[in-house]
Amino acid sequence: MRGSEAALGAAGCAVFVALGEAVPRLGLVDEDHFPPAGRIAGALGRELSDAAFWSALGDTLTGWALGLAIAVSAGVVAGVVISVVPYLREVTASTIEFLRPIPSVALIPLAVLLYGTELRSVLLLVGYAAFWQVLIQVLYGVRDVDPVAEETARSYGLGGWARVRHVLWPTALPYVMTGVRLAAAVALILAVTAELVIGAPGLGARIAVAQTSQAVPEMYALIVVTGVLGLLINVGARAVERRALAWHQSVRGEVAV
């Protein structure tokens, strides 16, 4: 089943590349604005041979990984604390609903004022955007805990930490992994956006330079790299999710199919 899905995905990519080659060649769009796929591939080859490209890629992955790690850690801890401390969920509900819809890009002026074009600006934006993905999933996961299981744990004398470990965490973990997968994609988007707008070192800044210098094939080649990164991150996150939830019915059912 997975093999056929991969084959269909590869076929879809091949059709997309063929269209990318044919549309400019047929004059449907201006080649100066949208070069054929072959020229983009050539530009990508030149980028891959440039040491500055790999340095920019490392900067982007550093901002993504650190921001994601901060967001996941803070989101899990905050979600568990808010859920288990009496009345804290009710007290924080309105604040969460106020802060969550604020777009991270709206914080770009604040990030620039605080940290300029340093890595910390990227971490602020990435961490803020990814944090909510994790926090909300943790809150939903804890809410899904079976009250009977919770009361049974209490009747057996399990303390607060033991109940979190043996009752709350196994129930919330599938939600947590979903939040991590969503946060990983959001973190990459914000990392590249921050570099593109702020000028922090990374692929986004390199895309901006290519655009301003009219190096259009190189610009598209870098955009392709960000797309491939997103694909790899999604595949990796799903693999980690399946491994962490190998005991869960959803994954066991998926493997059985």
UniProtKB/TrEMBL annotation:
<dbReference type="InterPro" id="IPR000515">
    <property type="entry name" value="MetI-like"/>
</dbReference>
<keyword id="KW-0813">Transport</keyword>
<keyword id="KW-1133">Transmembrane helix</keyword>
<feature type="transmembrane region" description="Helical">
    <location>
        <begin position="182"/>
        <end position="200"/>
    </location>
</feature>
<dbReference type="InterPro" id="IPR035906">
    <property type="entry name" value="MetI-like_sf"/>
</dbReference>
<comment type="similarity">
    <text>Belongs to the binding-protein-dependent transport system permease family.</text>
</comment>
<keyword id="KW-1003">Cell membrane</keyword>
<dbReference type="Pfam" id="PF00528">
    <property type="entry name" value="BPD_transp_1"/>
</dbReference>
<feature type="transmembrane region" description="Helical">
    <location>
        <begin position="98"/>
        <end position="116"/>
    </location>
</feature>
<feature type="transmembrane region" description="Helical">
    <location>
        <begin position="64"/>
        <end position="86"/>
    </location>
</feature>
<keyword id="KW-0472">Membrane</keyword>
<feature type="domain" description="ABC transmembrane type-1">
    <location>
        <begin position="57"/>
        <end position="241"/>
    </location>
</feature>
<keyword id="KW-0812">Transmembrane</keyword>
<feature type="transmembrane region" description="Helical">
    <location>
        <begin position="122"/>
        <end position="142"/>
    </location>
</feature>
<feature type="transmembrane region" description="Helical">
    <location>
        <begin position="220"/>
        <end position="240"/>
    </location>
</feature>
<protein>
    <submittedName>
        <fullName>ABC transporter permease</fullName>
    </submittedName>
</protein>
